[in-house]
């Protein structure tokens, strides 16, 4: 297993619309394992393939694992070719992103989503999600469509934040 490098804003790769996964081979399984390991290492509750420079409609997530709790078990879920087919309600909670370090903001999203996706064995699953799971799914699916959570801020606030992050990025390079 290997830790993967996470791309950060304003890397242009974060803007691509990822391609569907059609080859379910050993390499895909290795990629999923590496992505899960990277997610836990950061730590994050989700990681999309485009964040680690892979053009694939795929993300991993584990919203329930708590590093501080010795009883807590890692249960990473590989979500391949995801599709939200039902939405409901409204929710606004604070989000962060491994690709936008040290910035958090409240983002308006659906409170509930129904998700259809494939696992590593190409089996199709359906999942009704709410709470933090529903938010995580929408956040990760946005990544696969080239969207960051800061893109969902109101225009003025978005521009301010983007300029600030670009400046910080230039300083550290
Ligand atoms: Zn993110």
Write up this protein:
This protein is of the alpha+beta class. The chain has one domain (12-172): Peptide deformylase (Peptide Deformylase). 28% of the residues lie in helices and 29% in strands. The chain contains three helices and seven strands; from the N terminus they run H-E-E-E-E-E-E-E-H-H. The longest helix has 18 residues, at 155-172. The radius of gyration is 16 Å and the shape is globular. It binds zinc ion. Zinc ion binds at residues 97-99, 139, 143. Residues 97-99, 139, 143 line the site of zinc ion.
Helix and strand layout, with pairings?
Blueprint: H1 26-41, E1 46-48, E2 58-61, E3 77-88, E4 91-97, E5 100-109, E6 112-118, E7 124-130, H2 131-144, H3 155-172
Antiparallel strand pairs: 1-2, 2-3, 3-6, 4-5, 6-7
The structure holds zinc ion.
